[in-house]
Amino acid sequence: MGLNVAVQMDPIERINIRGDSTFALLLEAQARGHALAYYTPDRMAQRGNEISATVQPLSVRDALGDHFTLGEPRRVNLASFDVILMRQDPPFDLAYISATHMLERIHPGTLVVNDPAQVRNAPEKVFVTEFPDLMPPTLLTRDREEIKAFRAEHGDIVMKPLYGKGGEAVFRLTRDDLNFGSLYDLFAATFREPWVVQKFLPAVRDGDKRIILVDGEFAGAVNRVPAPDDLRSNMVRGGVPKATDLTVREREICERLGPALRERGLLFVGIDVIGDFLTEINVTSPTGIRAVKSLAGVDIAAMIWGRIEAKRKQHAIAT
Ligand SMILES: Nc1ncnc2c1ncn2[C@@H]1O[C@H](COP(=O)(O)OP(=O)(O)O)[C@@H](O)[C@H]1O
Ligand SMILES: [Mg+2]
């Protein structure tokens, strides 16, 4: 069954194909005989209820410096695709939210992965607060007194932006750190939103585990160990990917989250766990599938396409 697939993503010439999960999904789609088209979000338009974009046929190769070929651009109705992969990277800002509103008009007639309305409702560090018993003690606020009280209670804390990504502006403050006042002022001047204040988890030294769930089922995991001179485990900050297994607690976390993810059409999700505590549920543009493949030999891209194809079959039968 060859599907007509479009990918909405950032400029394809800029991606690092060695680590890019979107690229892994595109390679797998092509290998399964699906036709690929490519567009960037700035090429979308809405007239009335019709959502269109200037798209280009795309073919991909796992070759550094020569990883794609694009065909002639043409304006098409996005509802003409069977599947759209929404894979633009955060920031989760109003540009991002506008794109989810447009794609919501054509889903689920066109299967948008992940469901755009649900993505909009589930920013990574907000959605996770629906599972407070799985999380470390966490406060979302920009109120100085609240943060002081939380700090007095928990000692070592981390402050990080609510809509941050890739380890941006993640700070640890020890109990006696005199920089709190200045850091507070800097956050208050930089961010308009509340931010995340969280108990510092010493287990981060052993890594921050990315666990991938496909349609609510555990699919694979990779541990990311921070560089000795950095708090942050993100691979873009020098975190080193390591093969790993799930602990009993992590299996429990997956079982708790599975139904909620399935129900919401969040088909490709990456959760982050530090020392038994869930810290993020990434639904916008999760990564990690290439690292899991190279470390554990598990092909998550194939699992994702298997689920997408099954969903398209069900849809065809139902309509
Ligand atoms: N509460 C915490 N305790 C210890 N380390 C943390 C904590 N929160 C974040 N970190 C470190 O900072 C990194 C980035 O934080 P995270 O919450 O995952 O935000 P981002 O969206 O930027 O990845 C984590 O991978 C981890 O190494
Ligand atoms: Mg993270």
List the helices and strands and how they pair.
Layout: E1 4-8, H1 21-31, E2 35-39, E3 44-47, E4 50-60, E5 68-70, E6 74-77, E7 83-86, H2 94-104, E8 111-113, H3 116-121, H4 124-127, E9 138-141, H5 144-154, E10 157-161, E11 171-173, H6 180-190, E12 195-199, E13 208-214, E14 217-225, E15 240-242, H7 248-263, E16 268-274, E17 277-282, H8 289-296, H9 300-318
Parallel strand pairs: 1-2, 1-7, 7-8
Antiparallel strand pairs: 2-4, 3-4, 4-5, 4-6, 9-12, 10-11, 10-12, 13-14, 13-16, 14-15, 16-17
Helix pairs in contact: 1-9
The structure holds adenosine-5'-diphosphate and magnesium ion.
Describe the structure in your own words.
- Strand 16 (268-274) and strand 17 form a beta hairpin.
- The chain is globular.
- It starts with a strand and ends with a helix.
- It has nine helices and 17 strands.
- With 319 residues, the protein is of the alpha+beta class.
> Which distinct ligands sit in these coordinates?
adenosine-5'-diphosphate, magnesium ion
Report the sheet-strand fraction: 25-35%
> How many β-strand stretches?
17
Main sheet properties: 8 strands, mixed
Name the poorly predicted regions.
none
Termini separation comes to: 17 Å
Query: From the helix content, strand content and strand pairing, which structural class follows?
Result: alpha+beta
**Dominant shape:** globular
Sum this structure up briefly:
The protein is an alpha+beta fold and 319 residues long. Helices cover 30% and strands 28% of the residues.
